[in-house]
Write a structure and sequence with these properties.
single chain; Immunoglobulin-like; mainly beta; 182 residues; three-stranded antiparallel β-sheet; rod-shaped; four-stranded antiparallel β-sheet; 10 strands; 2 domains
Length: 182
Amino acid sequence: MAVSNTDDFSLEDVKNEIENNGGSTTNSLVEAFANANANGFDSSYQGNKDSLLNFRNYNHIIHNILVIGTDATGAINSTRFHTISNVSATSVVSVKFTYIGNFVADFSPTVSYNGNTINIGYSITMDLNLDPSTYVIEQPFSVAWTNCDTGTNISIKMEVLSSSIDTVPTQNSSTISIYDHC
């Protein structure tokens, strides 16, 4: 939580805001300014950064808007991955994966989760522990191709439901296609 938006907070409040959110040890006002995130100051109070009151409404963690996407490398029939980036601090991000469909040229693949065959529409929700980095998120379903048929693929949707720190964007999902690659 940010330093209070009042004028009765202490250096201890500033110290806790910095240290409890990944900042360096802070034992003085000079160290507080040295260890502070420059973007965490409220522009109404930041002043010359020479007074404890400059930390009014200070927030050491700047919340980002998560970026949801996909990633693919190699040939057009390569496996595609979901991505989550723009994570501002170590946090828990809740996601839901849904097996939304397949395009079958000749043979249907078998899609499973934890060893059990699932049908189109099956969803699983899980929490991911993320830190500031770009994450390639592997979908949790297994696919067994019954025949080598390069025209067959399945689609998996990932929806970001919540984040313990950052903001979930309005466009909170991505869909990938996984192609038969015998």
